[in-house]
Design brief:
Elements: H1 2-20, H2 27-34, E1 40-43, E2 50-53, H3 61-65, E3 69-71, E4 74-77, E5 82-83
Length: 88
């Protein structure tokens, strides 16, 4: 019975993907995913100055495609000499 259900789910899923091709999610979802994250703030030790750090919402394809070194379960980015994709 379990095999029949799995086969049916896979058949229906593949049929929908191959018939329609790639589809974007609703516009609301795209806007939420693409929205810029809130800036991080750092306060100076004397409390008189605040630094706002802005970053990108998602990494670029070039950043994702960069090679990485693997050492004992740790991913190392040889371009920066540090953790691989530690922050976007």
């Amino acid at each position: 019975m379990r095999i029949v259900i799995c086969s049916l789910v896979l058949a229906l899923g593949w049929g929908a993907v191959s018939a329609d091709g790639y589809r974007l999610p609703p516009d609301e979802v795209v806007r939420v995913v693409d929205a810029a994250p809130s800036p991080t703030q750092k306060i100076s030790p004397d409390g008189k100055t605040m630094l706002l750090i802005h970053r990108d919402a998602l990494p670029s394809v070039a950043e994702l495609a960069r090679p990485m070194l693997r050492l004992a379960g740790t991913r190392i980015d040889p371009m920066v000499g540090g953790a691989y994709r530690s922050r976007f």
